[in-house]
Amino acid sequence: MKGFAGQAGLGLVLVVLVAWFGILHDFSTVQAPALPRLMVAGALFLAWMTFTAFAIRPGAGTGEVRDTGGILIVHASQTGFATELAVRTAGVVHAGGPGAEVRAMDALTTDMLERATRVLFVVSTTGEGDAPDVASLFRERAMRAPLALHGLSYGILALGDRDYDDFCAFGRDLDQWLHASGATPLFDRVEVDNGDEGALRHWQHHVAHVSGTTATADWSRPAYRRWRLAERRLLNAGSVGGQCYHVALVPEDEADLAWEAGDIAEIGPRRARGDESVVPQREYSIASLPADGALHLVVRQMRAEDGTLGVGSGWLTAHAALGDTIDVRVRRNEGFHAPADDRPLLLIGNGTGIAGLRALLKARLAEGHLRNWVVYGERHARADRLHVDDLERWYEAGGIERLDLVWSREARGARYVQDRLRIAADGLRRFVGEGGGVYVCGSLAGMAPGVDRALRDILGDAAVSDLGASGRYRRDVY
Question: Which of the two residues, 389 and 97, has the higher pLDDT score?
Answer without folding.
Answer: 389
